[in-house]
Amino acid sequence: MSQLDSMTPKQFFKALESASPTDSLPPLATLLDAVQFNEDGLIPAIAQQHDTKEVLMMAWMNREALEETLTTQRVCYYSRSRQKLWRKGETSGQQQRLINAALDCDGDTLLVQVDQTGPACHTGRRSCFYVSLGADGAKITSEPMIDPAMLYGKKTP
């Protein structure tokens, strides 16, 4: 599939639609060049617990965060509020070890399957998706595993 090197990102991912698992792909750097980062240079990254398939959180990655994640196997995101790389767990200790990373068919969303240590959410809950919505209203579906103040060193246990 060496012709992929000269394609636009959209053409690149369109060509992958007919690829099979036995086809060889271009080098990782070429594939990352085709990733559809948004106008801010970011791609949404959905974190999923690898064994239970529970969706833990969604965050953003820039190319540097994605490359670091792939190289170190420790998940790194890009913090839009702090405008810098954010290595999951650097403050709370609740790290994510990369098991697998996969792009969607358009190359504009990333799924990172991880082994999550403790809660993934800054609220101390396992998942950030704990507000369930329905026709009858909303409800909280889980309790915090850890007091968020303890996660970030604001209070002693």
UniProtKB/TrEMBL annotation:
InterPro entries: PRA-CH (IPR026660), PRib_AMP_CycHydrolase_dom (IPR002496), PRib_AMP_CycHydrolase_sf (IPR038019). Mg(2+) binds at D104, D106, D108. GO terms for molecular function: phosphoribosyl-AMP cyclohydrolase activity. It catalyses: 1-(5-phospho-beta-D-ribosyl)-5'-AMP + H2O = 1-(5-phospho-beta-D-ribosyl)-5-[(5-phospho-beta-D-ribosylamino)methylideneamino]imidazole-4-carboxamide. Pathway: Amino-acid biosynthesis; L-histidine biosynthesis; L-histidine from 5-phospho-alpha-D-ribose 1-diphosphate: step 3/9. Residues 57-130 form the Phosphoribosyl-AMP cyclohydrolase domain. Binds 1 Mg(2+) ion per subunit. Binds 1 zinc ion per subunit. Its cofactor is Mg(2+); Zn(2+). It is an enzyme of class 3 (hydrolase). Homodimer. This is Phosphoribosyl-AMP cyclohydrolase. The lineage of its organism: Bacteria, Pseudomonadati, Pseudomonadota, Gammaproteobacteria, Oceanospirillales.
